[in-house]
Amino acid sequence: MRLLGMLTLAAALAAGPGAAQFDTSEQVKPILKMIKPQWVSLREYDGQDLLYFTLLEVYRCGIEQIRYRVNDGKPKVWQTAPCDGDGTFSEIGAEIVPYTGFPLGSVKSLRVELTYDDGSSEWAEYDRGDVLQ
Q1: ∠ CA 49-55-60, rounded to 5°
Q2: What stretches of 16-116 show up as alpha helix (H) in DSSP?
Q3: Which residue has the higher pLDDT, 24 or 3?
Q4: pTM of this structure
Q5: Phi, psi of 121 (to 5 degrees)
Q6: Cα–Cα distance between 22 and 86 in angstroms, integer?
Q7: Are 98 and 40 in contact (CB under 8 A)?
Q8: How many Cβ atoms are within 10 Å of 72's Cβ, its own excluded?
Q9: Using CA atoms, how far apart are residues 120 and 133, in angstroms rounded to an integer?
Q10: DSSP 59
Q11: 95 CB-near residues (< 8 Å, 6+ apart)
Q12: Sheet arrangement for strand 63-70
């Protein structure tokens, strides 16, 4: 419920006149720090573990790179959609697939690292139970 409230607030800010800007690290860092426990989510669906990057896609403007590591595997780069460039809340269009799949039950732990457009970085680690929906 807390996450829904934050997203609703962010959308409301972006929709009104003088909408809040979400296109630089300076603007997205405070939000991303606040929602760090929800950067990613995991869902068991159709015989797979689906790892979702939905919130990071929403705040992709201001993020230079998203790297993630599943269990003890090699780090991978999550390719975000291009930034809208209009300086407002970045919608996720129907053409964007905000998840990647893994064999069912195989995702035990995750590490996600964000590199912002100012060169700074921040990371989070999650156990399966932390992000399983």
Answers
A1: 120
A2: 25-34, 54-58
A3: 24
A4: 0.80
A5: -140, 165
A6: 9
A7: no
A8: 8
A9: 30
A10: T
A11: none
A12: 76-78, 63-70, 109-116, 121-127
Query: How distant, in Å, are the alpha carbons of 86, 130, 133 from that of 7?
Result: 19, 19, 17
Q: How many CB atoms lie within 10 A of CB 76?
A: 12
Q: What is the pLDDT of residue 15?
A: 45
Whether the pLDDT of residue 123 is over 90: the answer is yes
User: Alpha helices of the chain — where are they, by DSSP H?
Assistant: 2-15, 25-34, 54-58, 128-131
Cα distance between residue 120 and residue 69, in whole Å: 19
Compute the average pLDDT of residues 108-129. 97
The dihedral sign for the CA sequence 64, 68, 74, 76: negative
pLDDT for residue 27: 85
Tens-digit pLDDT profile for residues 25-82: 888 899 999 999 999 999 999 999 999 999 999 889 889 999 999 999 999 999 988 8
Bridge partners of 68, per DSSP, are 76, 112
